[in-house]
Amino acid sequence: MGVGVSLSPLASAVAREGGLGIVSSACLDRLVSKRTGKKFNTYEAAYEEVSRAKAAGGFAGINIMAALVRDYEDSVKGALDAGADAIISGAGLPLTLPAIQPPKDTALIPIVSSARALDIICKKWGKIGYRPDAVVLEGPLAGGHLGFKMDQIDVESNRLENLLPPVKDMAVKYGDFPVIVAGGIYTHGDIVRFMEMGADGVQMGTRFLATEESSASEDYKNAVVGAKDEDILVAHDPGSPCGLPFRVIKQSPMFVSALKRLRPPKCDKGYVLLKDKEGKFSVCPAKASNEHHFCICNGLLSSAGYNPDKEEPLYTVGTNASRIDRIVPVSTLMDELTGKALIS
Ligand SMILES: Cc1cc2nc3c(=O)[nH]c(=O)nc-3n(C[C@H](O)[C@H](O)[C@H](O)COP(=O)(O)O)c2cc1C
Q1: Architecture of domain 8-218
Q2: CA-only gyration radius of the chain, Å
Q3: Structural domain spans, the chain
Q4: Atom 19 (ligand 1) nearest CA
Q5: pLDDT digits (tens, 9 = 90+) for 42-62
Q6: How far away, in angstroms, is 159 Cα from ligand 1 center?
Q7: What does the alpha-carbon distance between residue 38 and residue 307 come to, in Å, rounded to a whole number?
Q8: Whole-prediction pTM value?
């Protein structure tokens, strides 16, 4: 979970409990530089955070968003050199991932929201001799950016249960690699149900957001605990400059300001910049039409305690945030999710 929610404290706690702990690469250079008081570039920050996540033992990797074009390759190289167990990559199609550097023992795992997207990735990767080691299938109930157009989010055929069979078939077609489902999975019972339907694992975000080890600010965690069903919506206009629908708590200060058109995005962090005609990273969609976007870099950095006095926070959550009523340690949550807490 980016920005700065899943860092090494959360990922290593998950790894210690037998899960695959995932740090987020988003804005890591600033976050790690601030924490250590030493300047880290993108490569060094990915290397540092993956190494720390793995230090306590168990399996740990990194999520690198394809939409973060400028920093993508350096993040991948830093994570590979640090020996990440997995790189999970979505928010766009990670078509170049295996071509960046030989992955050795690192599992390369794309995120998709349809069988068609998986087909495109497998064809492209196949041309250079790779196939995904697993795939994350993310449905429309997830937090963060969604891989669906606004009018597709509530469509019956896009429910995670209905997306799973065609994606499973596609994974079988290309060599029968594992399918990991994500988006709206909340209980041990949900995990069992999806495994019985053919999933090989689950990826979870929102429940781990409200753990002691998550690096979300206390205000963010409290907003999750306090959120009701009607407080959670998919922001589109104003929305994320990445161009994808983005689920938020509607009371998030950055979102409230954007709705009232109170603050134009600042675009001074540069993580979502695209190349201009001269090949320079200078284009942020929020700069071009600042009425319609919020400042996602500053909003999310603020939610992770970076410049909270200067920037308004933006809280992203999955639909299930409304069910969370307390902040727990990762060990307690993992006991519940694995069913241990039910047995003992
Ligand atoms: C706070 C938060 C931040 C997230 N950030 C990212 C991200 O940076 N990259 C990404 O691919 N997915 C991101 N996600 C999606 C999660 O990785 C996960 O797939 C999803 O939230 C699963 O649904 P759940 O929250 O219902 O468990 C984020 C989710 C949350 C709640």
Answers
A1: Alpha-Beta Barrel (3.20)
A2: 19
A3: 8-218, 219-320
A4: 182
A5: 999 999 999 999 998 999 999
A6: 17
A7: 17
A8: 0.96
